[in-house]
Amino acid sequence: MKQLTCIICPRGCQLTIDDNLNVTGNFCKRGQIYALEELTNPSRTLTTTIRVRNRKDVLIPVRTNKKVPKDKLFDIMQIINKTTVLAPCHINDVAIKNVLNLGVDIIFTSEIK
Ligand code: SF4
After folding, report:
1. CB 34 within 8 A of CB 20
2. Which of 55, 58, 69, 85, CA to CA, is 20 to 30 A from 12?
């Protein structure tokens, strides 16, 4: 048996998953989906910032355009921390293409002229 807090919405239901993968404690279906994904393939959308090299002391917010496996977050952050971009930057433009060959891009979530 495993217990999790659902992080999909602020209600934060306390989920219990038994050995047969039956989920209880969820107020809605999304909690069941979250619990089963969390046990079989935990993944997250990574949000962070990247340095802009032609603007002094400026960082631009970015995120993955899809969820990535939780165990890849550290490796992705290492790549992002070594990366700088050139302004102008536009929302949803790709900052890093196909990071770690995961089929996921790092995209801007803000704008710098
Ligand atoms: S189970 Fe549904 S209601 Fe409960 S926290 Fe998750 S998303 Fe929100």
Report:
1. no
2. 69
Question: Best substitution site from 24, 28, 33, 38 to test ligand 1's pocket, by max atoms within 8 Å of Cβ?
Answer: 28
Pocket of ligand 1 (CB under 6 A): 6, 8-9, 11-13, 26-28, 30-31
Residue 71 gets which letter from DSSP?
G
Closest C-alpha residue for ligand 1 atom 6: 31
Encoded tokens for 108? 């801007």
Distance of CA 13 to the CA centre of its chain: 21
Question: Please, where in the chain does CATH 3.10.530.10 lie?
Answer: 47-108
Q: What does the pLDDT look like over 33-84, one tens digit per residue?
A: 999 999 999 999 999 999 999 999 999 999 999 999 999 999 999 999 999 9
Q: Which CATH architecture has domain 47-108?
A: Roll (3.10)
Contacts with 30 (C-beta within 8 Å, 6 or more apart), sequence order: 6, 8, 9
